């Protein structure tokens, strides 16, 4: 048994050749069932879905991918985020990966950075996405508006987006200390109790690799205040583009919607998803691991509608 297999009983490991290197993922559920793509967030990997994926596979063909630069997927070199980690490019690459698995149209649930890839893909290629669930994010442009209005909020955003190699060098001195500090800070309990030790082992293995530290910083540079992700948001907002598919917004009570000027659902309805539905999850940022029952129930209800 390969490391992590026991987190996903009945799932098969996948190595998929993509346009910019190999992607790793796991697939479970009947091959003929409706496809559902799960995309994880920072600083994690596909392992964050282990408490939800087996149940979701009862009704769907579930594919949980490691994003490029994370987990076991390729981590190509990049500069200023644009060469490899702009969400528009990542979305196009994921379309190619899903086609190679035989899925032209699919539902998508994305947490954190995975949600950013998901909504960009859905705006650029709406015909590909049947349903879109966004877990604990607001649009990138809205996020930077919030940071500008409250300097010091979400300090990891401007820190990780700083020019290379400054953040990389800081993190490499103690990657476990840095990343585990974020897991604690963003969890409702402010400790690591919500995380399965097996999943933590996989997270630590990935974030200890210098190339992956660089990739995560490039991810944030692409989403920087002047980066291509925000520019794409602004272009679409100016053009009045919205998401035509059903959209679910899940927001954590103890992280995203705590002490904010507007709820995540209100932010999405004001921008890209005027008809979105939403639910609040009593958890910190890592709702799939902190509150798996409530998160699963919300996703199942949305996917079955």
From TrEMBL:
Domain AB hydrolase-1, first and last residues per copy:
34-290
Look up keyword Phosphoprotein and say if it applies. Answer: no
Concerning InterPro entries, the annotation shows: AB_hydrolase_1, AB_hydrolase_fold, Epox_hydrolase-like
One MF annotation (Gene Ontology) recorded for this entry: hydrolase activity
The yes or no answer to whether the keyword Hydrolase is present is yes
Which keywords describe this protein according to UniProt? Hydrolase
**Entry-linked PANTHER family:** EPOXIDE HYDROLASE (PTHR43329)
This protein's name: Alpha/beta fold hydrolase
Organism this protein belongs to? Methylorubrum zatmanii
- Taxonomic lineage from the root: Bacteria, Pseudomonadati, Pseudomonadota, Alphaproteobacteria, Hyphomicrobiales
